[in-house]
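Q: Start with the shorter request: fold the first protein.
A: Done. Sequence, then structure:
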Amino acid sequence: MKSIFIFLTRTESITSKIVKFFTSDKYTHSAIAFDKELFYLYSSGRKNGIKMFPAGPCMESLNRGFYERDPHTPCVVYELPVTDEAFALARKEVDAFMANIDDYKFSVLGIAACKLGIKWTRKNKYFCSQFVAQILRKSGAATLPKEDSLMRPLDYAKLEGVTKVFEGTVAELKAEINKKEAVTV
């Protein structure tokens, strides 16, 4: 048995502020990781870590971009135990996105449709929580309560079998990870 980690945040970016304004959700961004240290976070968002565009499938880090610039960013981490097969399939799905990164774009209109409750999928265009949903659904890692294009970050807290393993700021999360690494050495 392995685990997939779902990372939710709310940065001070313009996009995050717009999403927060329209949804009032506590968290406005989601990413997925395959290790408890969250060394690589995969999502659909800022490809360069700071500027909104270009955007699409990306690999984020707690040590770069917005998370480095604003360590007081609120975040929460959920652990989802999955079978070895689902874990491998989820990795394969992410690897396929990352290998063809230029074929995909960020779905700005998808965010608006999601807020309005309109199921709307566009070829090769994803917003963050839709990206995470597709990985979890296609790998069989989770049964989602909604269609991929209707998933919002906080919907991941309601998945069957998911456990909240951390809530605080990015700085506190990094300190917690470093503390656990020091104990295991």
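Q: Next, the second protein, separately.
A: Sequence, then structure:
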Amino acid sequence: MRNDMRSMNNRARSGTARRYLASWWMTAMLSVVALGSLDAQDLHFSQFFNSPLTTNPANTGFIPDADYRIGANYRSQWVNVMSIPYKTMSIWGDAQVMRDRFDNGWLGVGGVILRDVAGSGNLTSTKIYGSVAYHQQVGLGSLITAGFNLGWSNKRIDPTQLKFPDQFNKATGFFDAGVPSTVAFNASSVSYFDMQAGLNYAYFPTDKIYVNGGFSVHHLNRPKETFFEPVAGYDNRIAPRYIGFLNGSFKVNDMVIVNPMAYYTNQAGAQELVGGLNANYNLSGDGEVQVMGGVYYRSGDAVIPMLGFQWKMLRMVFTYDVTVSTLANYNNTRGAIEFAIVNQGDYSQYQGNRKQAWCPTFRN
């Protein structure tokens, strides 16, 4: 009887250890993804079209149907996998200026603040950028743009909240945070200046057709970013990130506008491809009230349904990442929720100077 009880206790302890190890393994893998962001993908939003300044600095002041805009984004990822889910937030704004200084051209100025908190080690990223772009209309139906931004970036981590394989106690089947680890952090915070640049082109031959594409390179100055001592032969500079996007807007009739979009980014071998479309439906007849719906797909990762509402110049959009990759075995397909709010406006003194709204609109 005593031997049976001992055997049952050993099996229970073993089962608990296996479950704990499985849970730790998943957390560790996701933490590696977070730490890997030091050398791989930067912060990103599924709604790349509602985060224009992080997509391409040439988008600064590139506003087809307004003179200025302000926005905010929020993303929460892996809520049911991580004890501390990944959260990314941003606030941003841009405006067209000096419209009366250039012949069919103007400057765009703007700025963005980004913050991201990832995982149990509280890997926190804070970025503040200011951007400038020059826009030149060519003929009646084309616009070309070049822009850049400069900013300050900081990443910090709390090593005391992390656990490492050499802290695992085989006797108890648990991690012992009191056991010193051979993983040595040289610093828990790193800061640097950063630079991005990009180009845009828009084509709008009629008031029913608008096509826009752009390309940008991020981390042009290759800043160094590491929490550890330099290692010979290891390049701790941030790899350049390349982003390309293409979107369109086509007015089907006075009730419907269809907006297909695609986005691709590549950094240090990590890549992301998102494509899909959404449509605006004119509820009020004058374009003051609109509903939006659509679906996007991130290749090999997630299906992203989208719902939105627009009242006058205020737009609110919600997306949900439905995981379709093997990660779905751990998060039950619940990838990320994301919300964006954007408000646009016009300068009253420029109302008479605007040649046209470049993209299809319901408003007269």
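Q: Describe the second briefly.
A: The CA atoms of residues 152 and 321 lie 30 Å apart. The longest helix spans residues 2-36.
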